[in-house]
Structure formats: structure tokens, C-alpha cells
């Protein structure tokens, strides 16, 4: 199923909102389905919107609050008219102090970029993130 007959603007907006709101717990979590399944950059899996909210709360209270990401859409593939797979290139900007090095207690992230794949579903006329998987690009 090609993309030519679909309006990609709402999908692009959802991905842009996920980037823009990544540090805003109250706005970010509702972008996801109730049963969302996420595997983050470090390999941690969270299942469900409540678990996502708790993981974000923990991250925002830690040095991870100083890590920002961007996502550039590379491809959109529709499985059905209400299910889309979105392939993105993720860039990671680590602004934490004292990262890496022999004396550091803050481990470096596995990479500065990753392949991000979203599975989006349309619920109540709005696109939501049902699944997100990020795989670090090791160079």
C-alpha cells in the first residue's frame, strides 16, 4: 500500500510533536496508545502508557533530562489505512556533565544516532504511537 493516497501531514506532525514534547510528561504520554510498547535507545522496554509515564518521570528526575533527540522521517509505509510504519533517523544530543571517561559515574550512551521505527495507529481520528523501537547505529 503506497503513500500517495494518504495525508502524511498528521503523521509528520505526530513525529514532530514527539520530538518537541519529549521532556513534557503531560503532553508526551497522550501521544501514545494505552498499550504502547517502547524499546528505548539503551534497550529498556516499557509496556503501557502508565509504565511510559513512570519511566519518563524517572528519566526527567535524572541526568537523562539533559539528553535530547531529533527524529527525521525517512519512510512511511501503510499496512492498512489506520496502521503506518514510520522509519526515522534519530540523532542524540548528550548534554550531561561528566559523561564517559575512566572517572565518570555517568556512562556514555551507546551511540550518537539510531534507527527509530514507529508503528502508528489511528484511534478516534488521531494518529498515536503504538510501538517505538530505537536501535543505536554503532560506527
Description:
The chain has 139 residues and is α+β, with helices and mostly antiparallel strands. 20% of the residues lie in helices and 42% in strands. It contains 3 helices and 6 strands. Strands 2-1-6-5-4-3 form a 6-stranded mixed sheet. Strand 1 (32-39) and strand 2 form a beta hairpin. The mean pLDDT is 90.
Q: Report the sheet-strand fraction.
A: 35-45%
User: What is the structural class?
Assistant: alpha+beta
Which geometry do the CA atoms define? globular
Major sheet description: 6 strands, mixed
Give a quick rundown of the structure:
This protein is of the alpha+beta class. It has helices at 9-20, 25-28, 49-60, and strands spanning 32-39, 45-47, 67-80, 83-94, 113-123, 126-136.
What are the defining features of this structure?
globular; alpha+beta; 3 helices
Write the layout of secondary structure elements.
Elements: H1 9-20, H2 25-28, E1 32-39, E2 45-47, H3 49-60, E3 67-80, E4 83-94, E5 113-123, E6 126-136
Parallel strand pairs: 1-6
Antiparallel strand pairs: 1-2, 3-4, 4-5, 5-6
Amino acid at each position: 500500500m503506497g503513500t500517495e493516497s494518504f495525508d502524511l501531514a498528521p503523521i509528520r506532525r505526530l513525529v514532530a510533536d514527539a520530538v518537541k514534547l519529549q521532556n513534557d510528561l503531560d503532553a508526551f504520554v497522550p501521544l501514545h496508545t494505552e498499550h504502547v510498547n517502547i524499546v528505548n535507545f539503551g534497550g529498556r522496554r516499557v509496556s503501557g502508557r502508565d509504565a511510559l509515564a513512570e519511566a519518563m518521570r524517572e528519566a526527567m528526575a535524572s541526568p537523562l533530562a539533559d539528553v535530547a533527540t531529533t527524529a527525521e522521517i525517512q519512510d512511511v509505509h501503510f499496512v492498512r489505512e489506520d496502521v503506518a510504519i514510520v522509519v526515522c533517523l534519530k540523532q542524540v544530543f548528550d548534554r550531561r556533565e561528566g559523561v564517559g571517561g575512566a572517572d565518570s559515574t555517568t556512562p556514555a550512551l551507546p551511540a550518537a544516532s539510531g534507527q527509530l521505527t514507529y508503528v502508528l495507529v489511528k484511534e478516534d481520528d488521531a494518529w498515536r504511537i503504538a510501538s517505538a523501537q530505537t536501535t543505536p547505529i554503532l560506527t
